[in-house]
From TrEMBL, chain A:
This is Type 1 periplasmic binding fold superfamily protein. It comes from the Bacteria.
Automatic annotation (TrEMBL), chain B:
Pfam families: CarbopepD_reg_2, Plug. It is found in: Cell outer membrane. Gene3D superfamilies: Carboxypeptidase-like, regulatory domain, TonB-dependent receptor, beta-barrel domain, TonB-dependent receptor, plug domain. Keywords: Cell outer membrane, Membrane, Receptor, Signal, Transmembrane, Transmembrane beta strand, Transport. Residues 120-220 form the TonB-dependent receptor plug domain. It is a multi-pass membrane protein. SUPFAM superfamilies: Carboxypeptidase regulatory domain-like, Porins. This is TonB-dependent receptor. InterPro entries: Beta-barrel_TonB_sf, CarboxyPept-like_regulatory, Plug_dom, Plug_dom_sf, TonB-dep_rcpt-like. Residues 1-21 form the signal peptide.
Length: 182, 770
């Protein structure tokens, strides 16, 4: 019985000793996170650039800045992706460019006459979509949706022409802008 | 006639030691088992002839007699439903005492065949035995349990599945590994229990009073995985189990070695399994391979007549591939995946490669137990166990990050228990105990992603007490348990800059259980049980916050959740009629107040990755009720027909809508043809079976992205035979699952959004005892 009592006492001591507070968790380095997409449209014949941006810091409503395009104009489009949570800010578009064969942007527009064409290619000669040409025609308004897919089937029918139907892959970015063409 | 059943006993390994000396201080330890099934017989009376000494066997069939004199030479062992056995201790030469009881039916040969049949009636405790486990070596724990009526599984493809008992799983259904609540990430629907079923001798479902002595946060039921005790044979012996399966081109090897050396008995059990991509009826399920390597070591030692100690160490290591086509970025991706017949990324060729998305999990358990006999009617036992669980989940990520886990959790736990058992007068038995569990759950920062669940420590102290009384026709059981849990949580904020948020919670939970069993005749009994209990909210339910990748939704916990309170009533009638018909019925009703569930919100949250549905942990009043019906009929000593039907319904009473992820109703038939001898083989069995799973119609269209899949029927065939060599016993089996290669999807498989379920599978296995 004495042994039994000793074991019980030992158990009580162990339980007593173990009551301590959980250590502070280590805050992970969120290097891969994308918080911001900036789409800069520069008129090819000179003039002021239009900047569309979408900033999502993970705190509720994202901050969306939209703009107005001119009718019958050709724009050069450039995408920038940033991680603004980390300090200093990380440029994720560099990473997408380096792994161009695993990424593709898609531009879906409901605006009559607005066309987006790819002007860049990856190592296989297939489009990435970081650089584009945007062509506007008549005035109008609608939505422009920009989608970034990771590991899409870039050689599937229609995909290199910007048709997302057969692309598959995971969506890394999907943002929509209300755009007016005047 | 009886020899044909001895193979079953061969599986039952027992431990007994037998000491003999002068005067009246001898002791005797033994086991009482069913002669046919090898199952332990609980509550058998063991009496010493010509004295008032005696005892009653425990749940595992074990008993201890102390203060025996040299003149105490004859034991009488009796139990309701069995023939009384009389054992002369002089005829036992040292070693082991295993007492086999024969069913009390009749001694006619014809009826002895039926005796096998009746022994299953005693098995109503919902159990998977060692024969089922060795013939199902290619399956995981949940897969094996599916054969038991009332149990189904929640799957995430072929490699991940968790058991569902009467509609409850995960946080509500603890799994006890060798009596210790498995300490891992049970909250995840895509987290399989980290236990190798080939280590186990029996897998059973505990209900009511039986479950009270285990510390685990449940609402009644628990799954108990128990390894066999070490056989008392002094020579080195063991068994080997090997299998091949066509689907996934898998193979597995299990080897068990054991020896009862004087002073120390040991057993080592190791398993290796590997499987590549599985195949649905019409295409490969790319990246669904599984690799597993497990080992378990058991040691048992008798220190002296009063102290017995044992140790158990197990290590479970697995890598599981998750269907590549099921990895989605947002809800648009899911909608696209739903439209496809063949999932994205499906390759035309088979492969053993496991790429992201994948899971690697290690689980290690170390347990020490000491049993101290105060006298033959009272004993205490002490348990210490520690567990380490490492779970890493790898997603398809940018750059080289696919090799960096997207989720990496380490859980470390300690468990202490002191238990006391006393046999009181008038066939009363009293059990009581104290338990303590410490859990330390930590996210590893290597992920580069904010964790879905926070870091925490949990301290849980509990006590229980239960009484049972055995009468001629009645068994009565009742008991209670109380637990007090302290949670110490340290979370990272989702706001910028990141901050540490701390929460401290104290919860109390209690359980009460009452059970009455009545034998209407030797062959028929009914049982009624009432369980009342509470379950504390888990950390994931309280503090989850973020995108749940596999589900494509944002999950938010609620830190104000209250404990769930559940009351369950069940009634069953089991028995056999005319030595021909066996029936088992189980009716249950469970009412749960403050039932915690993930409720889809009206809000669609806009993020840079697109729009996501938001799910919040909320509470409601819910009820789950159902019935499990089993009927077998023996047409002759060779042909048996079995039928099984399970009905279940879960409903959210407050909101008047169905509960999600409730198993569909099921129907099963099987024809078993068994020849005692054929061409030099023994017990040659051919079984053909059919399983029909109904469509889950109890669900509203807005509760899921798609309608639940149609009902489906699967055919299967199984053949097995035994061959006895001089010193070895060989068992061979062939199984054809989904024989017709039917393309189907199951409501309880989360991969149903993306791909068909597994197609035809042929399994060939060999089992040798040596």
């Amino acid at each position: 019985m004495k042994k039994v009592f000793h074991i019980l006492m030992l158990m009580v001591v162990i339980i007593g000793l173990s009551s301590c507070e959980k250590d502070d968790p280590v805050i992970p380095n969120e290097g891969e996170l994308i918080t911001t997409l900036i789409y800069t449209l520069t008129p090819q014949n000179g003039g002021e650039s239009v900047v569309l941006s979408f900033r999502d810091m993970g705190m509720g409503q994202p901050e969306v800045v939209t703009g107005t395009l001119k009718a019958n104009t050709n724009y050069s489009g450039a995408i920038k992706l940033l991680n603004e949570i980390e300090i200093p800010v990380i440029d994720i578009s560099e990473e997408v460019k380096e792994e161009g064969d695993e990424h593709q942007f898609f531009y879906l527009s409901t605006i009559e006459g607005l066309d987006v064409n790819y002007t860049d290619v990856d190592e296989d000669g297939l489009p990435i979509g970081l650089a584009t040409q945007v062509v506007t025609k008549a005035a109008g308004s609608g939505e422009l949706t920009i989608i970034l897919r990771h590991e899409p089937a870039k050689d599937a029918p229609g995909v290199s022409d910007g048709d997302i139907t057969n692309a598959g892959g995971e969506t890394d970015i999907e943002v929509t802008f209300e755009v007016d063409v005047e | 006639m009886l020899n044909k059943f001895t193979y079953l006993i061969a599986f039952f390994v027992f431990n007994a030691s037998y000491g003999w000396a002068q005067l009246c201080n001898n002791s005797l330890v033994g086991h009482v088992v069913d002669q046919h099934s090898g199952d332990a017989i609980a509550y058998a009376a063991v009496a010493v002839e010509g004295s008032n000494k005696g005892t009653i066997t425990e749940e595992d069939g074990s008993f201890v007699l102390m203060q025996l004199c040299n003149s105490d030479k004859v034991l009488h062992i009796s139990c309701v439903g069995y023939k009384k056995a009389i054992i002369n201790l002089d005829s036992i030469n040292g070693g082991n005492l295993q007492i086999k009881l024969l069913k009390a039916v009749s001694t006619f040969d014809e009826v002895v065949v039926n005796a096998n049949y009746i022994s299953e009636a005693q098995q109503a405790t919902k159990k998977v035995n060692s024969e089922d486990i060795s013939q199902g070596a290619n399956q995981n724990l949940a897969g094996l349990l599916e054969a038991v009526s009332g149990i189904s599984s929640l799957k995430s493809g072929g490699g991940v599945s968790k058991p569902v008992v009467h509609g409850l799983y995960g946080n509500r259904l603890p799994i006890l590994n060798n009596g210790i609540a498995q300490s891992g990430q049970q909250w995840g629907n895509d987290h399989s229990p980290e236990i190798d079923p080939l280590v186990a001798n029996t897998i059973s479902v505990l209900n009511g009073v039986d479950a009270l002595e285990y510390q685990g946060r449940s609402l009644g039921s628990m799954v108990l995985v128990e390894p066999a005790r070490i056989s008392a044979v002094e020579q080195l012996n063991g068994q080997s189990n090997i299998f091949f399966e066509s689907n996934g081109r898998g193979a597995g090897l299990n080897l068990q070695l054991q020896q009862s050396a004087p002073g120390l008995a040991w057993k080592v059990n190791g398993t290796l399994k590997k499987r590549g991509d599985q195949h649905a009826a019409n295409y490969f399920l790319t990246n669904t391979g599984v690799e597993e390597a497990n080992i378990a070591v058991q040691l048992e030692k008798k220190v002296n007549e009063q102290w017995y100690i044992d140790a158990y160490l197990s290590s479970f290591n697995t890598q599981i591939g998750i269907l590549r086509g099921s990895h989605i970025g947002n809800i648009t991706d899911l909608e696209e995946a739903l439209k496809r017949d063949v999932p994205f990324y499906t390759k035309e060729n088979f492969s053993y490669t496991i790429d992201a998305p994948r899971q690697t999990v290690q689980h290690h358990l170390l347990k020490f137990q000491a049993k101290h006999l105060i006298n033959s009617r009272r004993w205490v036992h002490f348990t210490y166990a520690t567990q380490l669980n490492n779970r890493k989940e790898f997603d398809v990520r940018k750059g080289d990050r696919s090799d960096i886990p997207a989720m990496s959790l380490t859980q470390f736990s300690h468990y202490l228990k002191a238990g006391y058992t006393s046999l009181l007068g008038n066939n009363w038995k009293w059990k009581a105990g104290l338990q303590f569990t410490f859990i330390d759950n930590t996210n590893q920062p290597e992920t580069g992603i904010l964790p879905l669940i926070p870091d925490y420590n949990s301290y849980e102290t509990g006590l229980y007490s239960s009484f049972s009384k055995k009468m001629d026709d009645w068994d009565l059981d009742f008991g209670f348990r109380y637990d007090r849990q302290i949670q110490n949580v340290a979370a990272i904020s989702t706001t910028v800059p990141r901050e540490i948020q701390r929460y401290n919670n104290v919860f109390s939970s209690y359980k009460l259980a009452l059970e009455a069993k009545n034998y209407l005749s030797e062959d028929v009994y009914w049982l009624m049980g009432v369980n009342l209990g509470t379950r504390n909210p888990e950390v994931n339910e309280l503090y989850s916050n973020g995108l749940h990748q596999g589900v494509g939704g944002i999950e938010e916990g609620d830190s104000t959740l209250k404990p769930e309170t559940g009351i369950k009533v069940n009634a069953l009638i089991n028995g056999q009629l005319w030595h021909k018909m066996l029936f088992e019925t189980d009716f249950y009703y469970q009412y749960i107040d403050n039932y915690i569930f993930l409720n889809p919100q009206d809000e669609i949250r806009l993020t840079i990755r697109g729009a996501f549905p938001v799910f919040k942990y909320e509470q409601t009043m819910a009820h789950i009720y159902g019935a499990d019906l089993n009927l077998s009929y023996l047409f002759s000593s060779q042909l048996k027909v079995k039928g099984q039907y399970s009905y279940l319904r879960g409903h959210n009473v407050s909101d008047n809508e169905p509960l999600i992820y409730m198993p569909s109703n099921q129907l099963r038939f099987s024809f078993v043809y068994e020849l005692e001898r054929l061409a030099g083989f023994e017990k040659v069995t051919i079984e053909s079976n059919y399983q029909y799973v109904f469509q889950q119609k109890h669900l509203q269209a807005d509760q899921d992205y798609v309608l639940p899949p149609d009902g489906y029927g699967l055919f299967g065939v199984r053949m097995s035979a035994y061959k006895q060599f001089k010193r070895h016993r060989l068992q061979a089996y062939v199984k054809f699952d989904n024989l017709l290669n039917k393309a189907y999807r199951d409501y309880m498989n989360r991969m149903r959004y993306f791909a068909d379920d597994v197609g035809r599978n042929v399994v060939i296995g060999l089992n040798v005892n040596f």
